[in-house]
Amino acid sequence: MRQRKPMLVLVIAVITSAATGASAQTLPNQGANAPRVPVRAPTTPPGGDTTGYWQQRADYQITATLDEARSLLRATGTLHYVNVSPDTLRELWLHQHLNAFRPNSRWSQRDSALGVKSFQSLAPADQAFERFTGAPRVGQQALKAEYPLSPDSSVVRLRLPRPLLPGKSINVQMAWEARPSALPRRQGRRGRHYDFAQWFPKVAVYDRQGWHPNAFVRQGELYGEFGTFDVTFVLPRDQVIAPSGVPVSGDPGWARVQLPGSMAPRIQSDSPAALAARAPAARVPATHRAVRFVAQRVHHFGFSVSPDYRYEGSHWVRSHTDGRAPDTVALHVLHESWEPGRTMAHLRSAMQWLEGLYGAYAWPQLTIAQRIEESGTEFPMLVMNGEEDPSLVVHEAGHQFTYGLLANNEWQSAWLDEGFTTYSEYWARGEARVPLALERADKGLFDPNIVTDSSLRRRLRAVEQFTEAVEAPVALPDAPPIGLRADLFANKDAYDAVVYDRAAGMYSALHDVLGDAPFRDLLRRYYARWTFKHVDRWALQKSAEDVTGASLDWFFGQWIDQVGTIDYRLDSLTAQPDAGSTDDRYLVTVQLQRMGVYRHPMSVGVQTAGGWTVLRGDPARDRHTLQFSVRGRPLRVWLDPFGTVESRTTSASRLTVPPR
């Protein structure tokens, strides 16, 4: 999801464990005893790679009817849950996320405590809900739905009729109704437009740390198990649908509303046999039609419908690095009021950028749907955007890779995806420090004070403004670390400032630590190793260490677990001719001193008439001496001469060598 506010925050505080309520302690991985920042890998095996990795599987087969007279969805379905873990399970935890958008939910209670008017004051007809219309069943046995956070009903526990042993599976039959709220927030309804971002009982993730059934709050995101969603929708004949997945049978409504010049994309599936499986029979009134979609290897399924949608289709040719022939990804844009062709052009551009970073997009389609709410939210194979913004498209399409295919726990480690999608958004605009420094170096423009190109000066200013946003939260009281659990942030502004801005600053710093080519290598290795898996800090760190061949625990430990900035100074400069040299060499000696909390391999440069000579400091040392041997008289000694370091202070440490 992308924030819309300026990247500065006025107030930051951290919620104490007591403020979350005593009942939170009844949920696994929550409460006072749960780590505020992860201390061990929840999904990555001890070796740091995928050897010994496991994840649960959750397949859904659903039939859902849109009942516009009641503004809700009536659904029945089966959850096929496979216990791949080494543990015996005696219960299932589910999320009913739509129940967050109503009075007395944890979300509403939090908003009220902060003076934010939202769902607490909604009239009954405007509230969202997701409720079982019958007891969930395993075979003929009814299961009792328990709500341990009552009156919040966004988390439900089902005690199993018999233990679920490792390697065994269970089918849970469910019937429910789901209604979005009239106040949009990651879901919503307005007239006949419905954004069903949340709508089905979603099984919580069970990983090496156990269950993760967190309540849905404003500064929280998603975490889901991979599986196949086979969903048949029964819709009014004039409704047009934009879902996750590929259409298997029936009419999505696209041809009827296709805009001139739109391409009819080729639909491709990774597993035709799975798509050919029989769907359950659906009762279809004469005024309705049935359309079936299948989404494979996904951990969520969202959709929007509107009779006013207009359709644009295209495709993207993806190239594989494993020897397979290139094939196509179907691209869909459905909108009510956007300029034709613009968002599709942005999407194609974003796909080119993102595949260049990671590798081939691993799903067969990607849809952008215009939603009621502004800004955007990501789901596997689906983006819901509220505006036409090329950077928003890059950000949300980027989430198809980070969060979608590299599926982190956004509730626990949102910095993994929000931080990088924010950084890649700036990078795509030419406003990332390391690539911009390389561009300046290629043009010989080292001093930003003498840059005359207006576009380059604008991007240099953007880089400095971003660094201000990265460092601004650090100076405030109780500044939280990047790795803090989402529900412990005091408010959404604090959350955004840290997991978007500061986390993006972390990726910028990592880009500089590794260098441009190794950083790009990291992204491709990370993606190739962890696609369709749950990732955590240790998965990313091990991938980075494989690139460098050295431990990076010092880097990730400080950025994720601590609060600070990069701040170094130069002093004790001496420069004198090298008495033993015959080619006009000088010896330059300078002291490099760490002043801030964070360590960084700082670049120090000596400029002569012939150019720059640069050395990097050792981040493990707080103070040490750097000695240069340069040809020609040294003119100046600068810290971070090319501006690659995510710091507001390093550019101030510039020493001039006095003439002899």
Topology:
Layout: E1 57-67, E2 72-82, E3 89-95, H1 106-113, E4 129-132, E5 137-138, E6 141-142, E7 145-146, E8 155-164, E9 169-179, E10 188-190, E11 193-196, E12 202-203, E13 205-207, E14 210-212, E15 227-236, E16 240-243, E17 246-250, H2 272-275, E18 288-298, E19 303-306, E20 310-318, E21 327-335, H3 342-358, E22 365-370, E23 376-379, E24 382-385, H4 390-398, E25 406-408, H5 410-413, H6 415-428, H7 433-443, H8 454-471, H9 492-514, H10 516-530, E26 533-535, H11 537-548, H12 553-561, E27 568-577, E28 585-594, E29 603-608, E30 611-616, E31 623-631, E32 636-639, E33 654-656
Parallel strand pairs: 1-15, 21-22, 22-24, 25-26
Antiparallel strand pairs: 1-2, 2-9, 3-8, 3-12, 4-9, 5-6, 7-8, 10-11, 11-19, 13-14, 15-18, 16-19, 17-18, 20-21, 23-24, 27-28, 28-31, 29-30, 29-32, 32-33
